[in-house]
């Protein structure tokens, strides 16, 4: 945060996500809550006392919720109750990451490469790395002809990709009447159409093996709208629907349920793409609407790949609540927009082009 923003060591690390994490391990933990009625019983309360009955019912509700979540995970990933899934052999994986030359994609590429994973980066700008496990191909992923040609080269020179991470993204930050044809075509080409082209190029090999993993980077802006982001929000909403429809096709038409599909919907992330996006630096705002670092997104992605599970990743926690906003009355939707300060967050936005055009550390930009 800049010097004028309120900041202490406590507030910098204390946010809603931390509170939720603590509650998950305590008040919403079946193990922890199971001791509550036992505690009251050994303190002299009778089994029929309201305090024992209510705490036991609460524990039962927590256990039931966790059970349903567990069953949902098993169902979505075709898991057996009696056997654990096999571990992912990273040495056999070839991971393709679009937009892997900066931000989330760059961090993910380097993190996997350190684990001796073969990583292929598709971007219009080269990735700045000395890791020999990373191979870079210049490719405009919004163009099918380029994706098709590069896909052939990857198969010939490296092998058949087993994991695809569609991460490439652009943002224009203009009002709808200020967007020109090139702006809209670029936004939908990179943020949405590129997903179709890369899937079309690499999915057939996965279907043959009946295994693989496709990670789709969407955004909280694909769930809710915001001024000066009509094209961006539309493109991110499109890939959310793509992810869900793709899962149905894989399960029911291609008979390849072993191919995992993970959807990632992050909130405001401190990367170059949104370096001039304005959000309040006040600790109370940051408590509820935390700005996350790329590592906060990369970690759950790698966890999903490691577990070989289809997941929906929403970080920070408030993103999980945004899906309910559109069902509220209009005046409450407007109030939520006001509280989240999203109405004017793009007012001073400036599009950054060129890898080295940052003005200082990313973590100090876009915060006022």
Automatic annotation (TrEMBL):
GO terms for cellular component: membrane. Pfam families: adh_short. The keyword Oxidoreductase applies. Its main location: membrane. It is a multi-pass membrane protein. The chain crosses the membrane at residues 22-42, 51-71. Keywords: Lipid metabolism, Membrane, NADP, Oxidoreductase, Transmembrane, Transmembrane helix. InterPro entries: NAD(P)-bd_dom_sf, Sc_DH/Rdtase_CS, SDR_fam. One of its GO terms (molecular function) is all-trans-retinol dehydrogenase (NADP+) activity. It is found in: Membrane. Catalyzes the reduction of all-trans-retinal to all-trans-retinol in the presence of NADPH. Belongs to the short-chain dehydrogenases/reductases (SDR) family. This is Short-chain dehydrogenase/reductase 3. The lineage of its organism: Eukaryota, Fungi, Dikarya, Basidiomycota, Agaricomycotina.
């Amino acid at each position: 945060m800049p010097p004028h923003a309120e900041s202490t060591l406590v507030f910098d690390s204390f946010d809603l996500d931390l509170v939720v994490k603590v509650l998950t391990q305590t008040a919403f933990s079946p193990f922890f809550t199971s001791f509550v009625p036992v505690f009251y019983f050994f303190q002299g309360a009778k089994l029929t006392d309201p305090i024992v009955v209510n705490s036991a019912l609460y524990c039962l509700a927590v256990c039931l919720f966790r059970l349903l979540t567990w069953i949902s995970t098993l169902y979505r990933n075709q898991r057996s109750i009696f056997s654990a899934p096999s571990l992912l052999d990273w040495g056999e994986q070839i991971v393709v990451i679009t937009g892997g030359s900066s931000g989330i994609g760059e961090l993910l590429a380097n993190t996997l490469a350190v684990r001796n994973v073969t990583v292929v980066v598709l971007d219009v700008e080269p990735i700045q790395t000395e890791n020999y496990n990373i191979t870079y191909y210049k490719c405009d992923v919004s163009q099918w002809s380029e994706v098709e040609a590069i896909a052939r080269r990857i198969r010939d020179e490296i092998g058949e990709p087993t994991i695809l991470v569609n991460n490439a993204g652009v943002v224009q930050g203009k009002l709808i009447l200020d967007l020109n044809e090139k702006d809209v075509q670029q936004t939908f080409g990179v943020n949405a159409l590129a997903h179709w082209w890369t899937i079309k190029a690499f999915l057939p090999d996965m279907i043959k093996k009946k295994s693989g993993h496709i990670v789709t980077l969407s955004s909280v802006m694909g769930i809710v709208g915001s001024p000066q982001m009509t094209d961006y929000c539309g493109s991110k909403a499109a890939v959310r629907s793509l992810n869900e429809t793709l899962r149905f096709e894989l399960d029911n038409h291609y008979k390849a349920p072993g191919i995992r599909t993970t959807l990632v919907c992050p909130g405001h992330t401190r990367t170059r793409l949104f370096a001039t996006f304005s959000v309040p630096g006040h600790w109370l705002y940051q408590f509820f609407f935390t700005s996350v670092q790329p590592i906060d997104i990369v970690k759950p992605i790698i966890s999903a790949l490691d577990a070989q599970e289809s997941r929906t990743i929403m970080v920070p926690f408030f993103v999980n609540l945004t899906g309910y906003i559109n069902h509220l009355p209009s005046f409450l939707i407007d109030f939520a927009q006001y509280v989240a300060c999203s109405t004017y967050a793009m007012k001073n936005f400036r599009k950054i082009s060129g890898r080295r055009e940052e003005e200082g550390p990313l973590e100090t930009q876009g915060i006022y």
